[in-house]
Design goal:
Layout (H helix, E strand, L loop, with lengths): L11 H17 L2 E3 L2 H9 L3 E3 L4 E3 L2 H10 L4 E4 L5 E5 L5 E3 L6 E4 L4 E3 L3 H12 L7 E2 L12 H12 L4 E3 L6 H13 L2 H6 L3 E5 L6 E2 L1 H13 L3 E5 L2 E2 L7 H22 L5 E5 L2 E2 L12 H16 L5 E3 L10 H16 L4 E3 L3 E2 L4 E2 L1 H17 L12 H10 L6 H10 L12 H6 L5 H14 L8 H17 L13
Parallel strand pairs: 1-12, 6-18, 7-20, 9-10, 10-11, 11-13, 13-15, 14-16, 17-18
Antiparallel strand pairs: 1-3, 2-3, 4-5, 7-8, 19-20
Helix pairs in contact: 1-9, 3-9, 4-5, 4-16, 5-6, 5-17, 6-17, 8-9, 9-10, 10-11, 11-12, 12-16
């Protein structure tokens, strides 16, 4: 049995103190919740609510009750109903970064606004990336009305891809059609509860506030059995204490408050203890996701989530670079490695550049290999017919190599991870013979290859038709006579 390598940042004493301080903040200072319906529910469950100021003071008994009712694990399923994710223990799954406003255009090497064709190519590509187990609604298509942009990207993901989707909405109104799309895929409410298809991101506003939209999203998802990931985003030194411990106290308080909203609405509703915090770089007024301190906060709050008995999520395997360059690889690989060693269950970020605002298909190909390497890393080292060692060394001395040894043939593929052609492992002469391609060129070649080999989703035709009908109706509701033309049959 392999020993799984693990990473820890917090001592037991420090972790418990952070949680205790966060609970004290919730009970003494509380949070603002700008949603009358949620305020009423919290008051009914024992919280002290100032309705005029939208302020909530929690009680320790309420916190205990809600932390006890939230599930310690849950699973996710693709559009065909096959299990793809087990959010439990230290199991690790990767998903692309979400909701980018831009894409990096390979031909021009310029960052620009994406459209429907870009999104379809993204879904096609992701279908062929085996180490990234879910889709995200990765970027926002600029060729539709912004009021349908949330539902439209989920629509394209469900129509063209089979992997489950990490998604969310920036409005209350979009939730209904996004829920109805999932019901269309699954066939009914009972089936969707039994086999969740999506995870919705729900984001408190730092410091210590829930808007009407995000708090409504939490209770709407809970009512339908749709899992949510809480994405608290404290900024160290700006909208949070400058110290990492102080930021962790704030993140813990904001996330636990979201858990309470979820559980008073629907006890047992599934959640991911997640986030997207960052340190604030005062020199540039930016929020570097690739900063080592950002990554440390992510890994540490995951320890807190696991201490509370919850599955975890983080935005961590991504970069602030503007191109597919050395910085992009450095920051993404470091984040993915730290996250995997920390056992973060849902690792969000592959493909992302420019402070979570840009997606790159070529980077997504590279990041898929980073994910593959880290997944191999956490498998650890274990003996595979290695003891007693003498027979294999006798064979080595006799044959002068072990290239075709039965032991090699039995264990080569399980023991060694072989990356795809985007990673250069050729010697210099072979690299020259094969065209002296750069990383970007190799990655683009893989994008073209994988999108060309894409096969339509096996979702039943009548369910695809229902998805289209729902999306067309939603577009008309907001004044769009028709949707943009799509490049391929789904």
């Amino acid at each position: 049995m392999a020993l799984r390598p693990q990473l820890k940042f917090l001592s037991a004493e420090l972790l418990e103190r952070i949680v205790a301080e966060a609970r004290d903040i919730l009970c003494r200072l509380g949070t603002k919740v700008q949603n009358p319906r949620v305020l009423e529910m919290l008051a009914e469950h024992g919280a002290k609510v100032d309705f005029e100021k939208s302020q909530v003071l929690y009680t320790n008994s309420l916190l205990d009750r809600c932390l006890k009712s939230v599930p310690a694990q849950f699973k996710l399923f693709d559009v065909l109903g096959n299990e793809t994710h087990d959010f439990s223990g230290n199991k690790v799954h990767f998903t692309p970064g979400s909701a980018a406003l831009h894409v990096l255009d390979y031909q021009t090497q310029k960052i620009r606004k994406p459209d429907t064709t870009d999104y379809v190519r993204y879904v096609q590509l992701l279908s062929g990336l085996s180490h990234i187990s879910s889709q995200s609604t990765a970027f926002i298509s600029a060729d539709v009305d912004e009021r349908v942009s949330d539902s439209y990207r989920l629509f394209l993901s469900l129509l063209y891809g089979e992997k489950p989707v990490i998604t969310g909405t920036f409005t209350i109104e979009s939730f209904q059609v996004m829920r109805d799309m999932q019901l269309a895929v699954r066939g009914g409410e009972k089936e969707l509860r039994a086999k969740p298809l999506t995870v919705f991101s729900c984001c408190p506003t730092s410091p210590l506030k829930w808007s009407e939209i995000t708090s409504q999203n939490v209770i709407d998802c809970a009512a339908c059995g749709i899992p949510v990931e809480f994405i608290s985003m404290p900024l160290s030194g700006f909208m949070a204490p400058v110290t990492l411990v102080g930021t962790l106290v704030q993140h813990t308080a904001e996330t636990i408050s979201g858990i309470v909203i979820s559980q008073v609405s629907s006890p047992g509703a599934p959640v991911l203890y997640g986030g997207s915090p960052a340190v604030f770089d005062m020199r540039y007024e930016t929020t570097p996701m690739g900063a080592v301190e950002t990554q440390m906060i992510d890994c540490a709050y995951s320890e807190i989530g696991k201490y509370l008995g919850l599955p975890t999520q983080a935005y961590i395997s991504l970069s602030d670079a503007k191109l597919l360059d050395a910085q992009a690889g450095l920051e993404t690989a470091m984040g993915a490695t730290l996250a995997a060693l920390s056992g973060i269950n849902s690792i969000s970020g592959p493909g992302m550049l420019d402070f979570e605002s840009c997606q790159s298909l070529e980077k997504l190909v590279l990041d898929n290999e980073i994910c593959g390497m880290t997944l191999r890393l956490v498998q650890g080292i274990e003996p595979r017919e290695d003891f007693p060692a003498q027979p294999i060394f006798e064979e080595l001395l006799r044959e002068k190599h072990l290239l075709i040894s039965p032991h090699t043939r039995r264990h080569l593929k399980s023991e060694h991870y072989f990356p795809g052609p985007v990673i250069d492992r050729a010697n210099l002469s072979r690299w020259r013979e094969e065209g002296s391609l750069t990383l970007g060129q190799r990655a683009h070649r893989e994008v073209e290859k994988l999108t060309a080999s894409w096969l339509p989703s096996r979702l039943a035709a009548e369910r695809k038709k229902e998805l289209c009908s729902l999306m067309e109706k939603e577009a008309r509701r907001w004044g769009m006579e028709k949707l943009p033309s799509r490049p391929l049959e789904a």
